[in-house]
Amino acid sequence: MSDARVNERVLAALAGVIDPEIRKPITELDMVDSVTVADGHATVGIRLTIAGCPAAARIEADVLHAAESVTGVGNATVEVTVMTREQRQALTEKLRGGAAARSNPFGPDSLTRVYAVTSGKGGVGKSTITANLGVALAHRGLRVGIIDADVYGFSIPGLLGLVDTSVGGSRLAVKPTQVGEMILPPVAHDVKVISIGMFIDDPAAAVAWRGPMLHRTISQFLTDVYFGDLDILLLDLPPGTGDVAISVGQLLPHADVLVVTTPQPAAADVAERSGIVARQTGQSIYGVIENMSGLPQSDGSVLDLFGSGGGAEVARRLSAGQDSPVPVLAQVPLSVSLRSGGDAGTPVVLSDPTDPAAVAIQAVAQRLATRARGLAGLSLGISPRI
Ligand SMILES: Nc1ncnc2c1ncn2[C@@H]1O[C@H](COP(=O)(O)OP(=O)(O)OP(=O)(O)O)[C@@H](O)[C@H]1O
């Protein structure tokens, strides 16, 4: 086979190398600089987006493997350089697909379904449910992103294993790669994740942020983070009815809301309030998830550690005056597997999928995944003639 023919084949093989952060073939990202083949030896020049790109080693190894798997190539060498400023700029424009810089891709005309996960009080398992739902949806083949906007307890990176343990045994969230003004969200279990915790080293700092700062941060997450085309975007909100919930309501008024609560009837008041605030900003409530619903015992009985009926009560109250009732989407039992999966960074829907908590969360994921995309709420771009 001629060198030119082998050269073509190497290029074709490189189309199978996916940038792990951007999740597109490197050939589409103009990362392949050159391919030369001589006497069965291929030399591939690749351009990384930035110096010290965390995905560099993986891309290099994948390129080497792709080149050496081509018939006619005995061995290969990979030469790595870094994009110039202009090349980076061209790439970010290409990824934005011509959309204006700093526009929110999740506006009312977007095909991405947005779910804001909220709760009345803290510690009810909102982040755990969000992380598991995201992973369960991605496992079904959907393109999923999570924005962790829980300024008081940004736990999503830890729940998904996106932690950097190299610094003195600490568990700081990994830092996202930045290409020009574009932020590439780290990917875990096929879910693209961005978190306030990825931008600060001192967790105490963000908690003191005031409303405008929080608003700017959420807005920046929506405009500057490259999620690509998503089927579903989940937002993990801080508990309660504070500034972030209101900002998200303003920035994503067409989002649907999932209210997480516990079986404790006393928690129903605050959970109901968080739903009402969401509704006031134009969002609609898709359903209630009751978490920590009973502890299965070895004799088959269930111990209602946190009482019972809280989820149904919140759903009943949020249904008042609505055309269609707000359903309880699931009752997720207390589960050691769910807790330990979160601690280990591998959500229970992957680590122990037959655990009853995993099964309950998967049922919600199934419901979200198969939900028809109605045109309700989408602007038709026409106005009646008067
Ligand atoms: N069903 C469950 N069974 C056992 N443990 C659970 C369950 N749900 C959540 N947990 C545990 O409860 C703790 C709180 O969960 P999580 O951080 O998800 O709550 P949260 O509502 O997001 O809290 P906050 O909003 O305050 O950050 C975690 O340690 C988690 O592992």
Describe this structure in words.
The structure is a single chain. The chain is α/β, with parallel strands linked by helices and 386 residues long. The protein folds into two domains: 3-96, GMP Synthetase, Chain A, domain 3, CATH 3.30.300.130; 113-369, Rossmann fold, CATH 3.40.50. The chain has an eight-stranded mixed beta sheet, with helices on both faces. A three-stranded mixed beta sheet has the order 1-2-3. Strands 6-7 form a two-stranded antiparallel sheet. It has helices at 3-14, 56-68, 85-96, 126-139, 156-159, 203-207, 211-224, 243-251, 268-280, 310-319, 336-344, 348-351, 356-369, and strands spanning 32-38, 41-48, 75-82, 113-119, 144-148, 163-164, 172-173, 177-179, 182-184, 187-188, 191-195, 232-236, 256-261, 284-291, 295-296, 302-303, 328-332. The structure holds adenosine-5'-triphosphate (ATP). Residues 119, 122-128, 150, 153, 155, 239, 291-292, 332, 334-335, 338-339, 342, 357 line the site of adenosine-5'-triphosphate. One of its GO terms (biological process) is iron-sulfur cluster assembly. It holds the Pfam family ParA. GO terms for molecular function: 4 iron, 4 sulfur cluster binding; ATP binding; ATP hydrolysis activity; ATP-dependent FeS chaperone activity; metal ion binding.
Could you give a quick summary of the protein structure above?
This protein has 13 helices and 17 strands. With 386 residues, the protein is α/β, with parallel strands linked by helices.
Distance between the termini: 71 Å
Tally of distinct domains:
2
How many beta-strand elements? 17
Q: Please report which band the strand proportion falls in: under 5%, 5-15%, 15-25%, 25-35%, 35-45% or over 45%.
A: 15-25%
Q: How much is the radius of gyration in Å?
A: 23 Å
User: Which bin fits the share of residues in helices?
Assistant: 25-40%
Q: CATH H-level name of the largest domain... which superfamily?
A: P-loop containing nucleotide triphosphate hydrolases
Secondary structure class reads alpha/beta
- Looking at CATH, which topology of the largest domain would you report? Rossmann fold
Mean pLDDT: 87
Overall outline: elongated
Q: Please mark out the parts with pLDDT under 50 across 5 or more consecutive residues, or reply none.
A: 374-386
Name of the CATH first level of the largest domain: Alpha Beta
CATH architecture annotation name of the largest domain: 3-Layer(aba) Sandwich
| Total of helices | 13
The largest sheet, given as strand count, sense and whether it forms a barrel, is: 8 strands, mixed
Reading the helices and strands in chain order gives HEEHEHEHEHEEEEEEHHEHEHEEEHEHHH
Q: What order do the strands of the largest sheet run in, or round the barrel if closed?
A: 10-11-5-12-4-13-14-17
Oligomer: single chain
Present as ligands are: adenosine-5'-triphosphate
